[in-house]
From TrEMBL:
Domain MmgE/PrpD C-terminal, chain residue ranges per copy: 279-443
Catalytic activity: (2S,3S)-2-methylcitrate = 2-methyl-cis-aconitate + H2O
Pfam families in the record: MmgE_PrpD_C (PF19305), MmgE_PrpD_N (PF03972)
A GO BP entry: propionate metabolic process, methylcitrate cycle
Organism annotation: Acidithiobacillus thiooxidans ATCC 19377
This protein's UniProt keywords: Lyase
InterPro entries: 2Me_IsoCit_deHydtase_PrpD (IPR012705), MmgE/PrpD_sf (IPR036148), MmgE/PrpD_sf_1 (IPR042183), MmgE/PrpD_sf_2 (IPR042188), MmgE_PrpD (IPR005656), MmgE_PrpD_C (IPR045337), MmgE_PrpD_N (IPR045336)
Region forming the signal peptide: none
Enzyme's top EC category: lyase
UniProt protein name: 2-methylcitrate dehydratase
Listed EC numbers: 4.2.1.79
Length: 477
């Protein structure tokens, strides 16, 4: 190990992850809900044919002594297990979200957290096992690292995908859970920093595709791999961020410095954005809710969806950049990132479900007709409230007019159901979402019992990570 001091930001991240400070019950309660929601998303993905087809190609480490993979009956080595779990959590575009200068999904890191914790227990032969209290603590820290790095570091403007931050947070989380000394954790982190980082190509037309469903799993797996390398004594790169020309700040951020704009605590998990009740890209959540309300109003006055003449959508600049699409939508990944498609489905059906991104809905002529009637524009005040740290709104306004209406009708919603400002309504909806996500699976434990375990500290926190994962081990891929 070199005597050169590691860059300040890397040191601060590792110091926070290794801190012995504890979190209060409100924060840990949020971590339990985040865990429950993510597990539910993974279980639902285990019923998705395309997801299981891809994961079936990545099982070279299959054995009887590996990490139990959620939604299956298989056990894998830690790297492949992380890829599986991380991909399943993310696959259906239904896990939690964080929005700032950079966008992301902190629960993407669950693949690395669960796999690293389980692998460490297996290596210890269950002596002094990592329990779920340790996992919850690391969930809070991984969310915080990921989310605070999103606040002022904008990768999307450079064409770089946000899973760069999954790789960073997952590497740190895996290092801590694998009980690496700080020096080795810094080595692992520096290697994550200097890795090549994926482009956003697969998130945008004309190339939007399913890689966006497994990109996070890939990043979590790399995080564990780098932690395992460091555990052998593999060297680190102390000025990986700041070295001139060749460092991350110059080569990736084009001369800007990676920053931590606020102290690391529990801010992110306390303000996390849940996706309830619809699996819509987060900038579309309030638009879908508004469309469902407008459908009810249209029916109440005796009009029909077929009579809609036009739909005008006022939204945020990020929504315009990410999900404002026209023309052919080539696959489900394209559709779940199309604002017009999601609004059209919500108007036609009064809902938006996972299945709606596939056939036969994808070919419904009424959906195509409605898409052509939708015009999206940025409302500057919406973009301002989106970036306002005191509001963090995700607003949308829908205005439409039907044949025979004297004037247009409108719905404006600033905060989605999963926002911190609507928490009282959010928690019951999250439980309902979880039950629905596991209802079609072969999980041996009933959903009511699972909810009770995952929301009750005295039942969850002392459980070993291996016992927890076995609750969800169900079927062969």
């Amino acid at each position: 190990m070199t005597d050169t001091k590691f860059d300040e930001v890397m040191g601060a991240l590792i110091d926070y992850a290794y801190s012995q400070s504890s979190f209060n019950e409100d924060t840990l309660g949020m971590a339990r809900f985040c865990l429950m929601d993510s597990i539910g998303c993974a279980i639902a993905a285990s019923e998705d044919r395309d997801c299981m087809k891809l994961l079936g190609s990545a099982q070279l480490s299959k054995n009887d002594q590996g990490v139990p993979v959620i939604g299956t009956s298989i056990q894998l080595g830690p790297i492949e297990a992380s890829f599986h779990i991380g991909s399943m959590v993310r696959w259906l575009e239904f896990n939690d979200t964080w929005l700032a200068q950079e966008w992301g999904h902190p629960s993407d890191n669950l693949g690395a957290i669960l796999a690293a914790a389980a692998w460490q227990n297996l290596q210890r032969d269950d002596v002094n096992p990592i329990n779920m209290a340790d996992v919850l603590n690391m969930i809070v820290r991984a969310y915080e690292i990921h989310g605070i790095l999103c606040l002022e570091n904008c990768f999307n403007a450079l064409g770089i995908d946000h899973v760069v931050l999954v790789k960073i947070a997952s590497t740190i989380a895996a290092s801590k859970l694998l009980n690496l000394p700080k020096e080795q954790a810094l080595s692992a982190l520096s290697n994550a920093v200097i890795d090549g980082h994926p482009l956003r190509t697969y998130r945008h037309a004309p190339n939007a595709g399913t890689r966006k469903s497994w990109a996070a799993g890939d990043a979590t797996a790399r995080g564990i791999q780098l932690a395992l390398f460091a555990q052998t004594g593999e060297m680190g790169y102390p000025t990986a961020l700041t070295t001139k020309r060749w460092g991350f700040n110059d080569a990736v951020l084009r001369g800007n410095a990676l920053t931590l704009p606020r102290d690391l605590s529990d801010f992110v998990i306390r303000n996390i954005l849940f996706k309830v009740p619809n699996p819509a890209e987060y900038h579309a959540q309030t638009a879908v809710e508004a469309a469902i309300r407008l459908r009810e109003r249209i029916e109440a006055v005796g009009s029909s969806i077929a009579q809609i003449e036009y739909i005008r959508v006022e939204t945020t600049r990020p929504a315009i950049q990410i999900i404002d699409k026209s023309g052919t939508l080539n696959n489900s990944a394209d559709r779940d990132h199309c604002l017009q498609y999601m609004i059209a489905v919500a108007l036609c059906t009064g809902d938006l479900t996972i299945n709606d991104f596939h056939e036969p809905m994808a070919s419904d002529p009424q959906i195509h007709s409605l898409r052509d009637k939708i015009n999206c524009i940025e409302r500057i005040s919406f973009t301002e409230s989106y970036y306002d740290p005191e509001k963090r709104a995700i607003p949308n306004a829908l205005h439409l007019k039907c044949t025979g209406m004297a004037e247009e009708i409108s719905e404006v919603i600033e905060y989605p159901l999963g926002h911190v400002r609507r928490r009282n309504d959010c928690f019951p909806a999250l439980i309902k979402k979880f039950r629905k996500n596991v209802s079609g699976s072969s999980v041996n434990v009933k959903s009511d019992e699972l909810v009770d375990i995952m929301t009750t500290a005295t039942k969850l926190d002392d459980m070993s990570i291996i016992d927890f994962l076995h609750l969800f081990s169900i079927r062969n891929i």
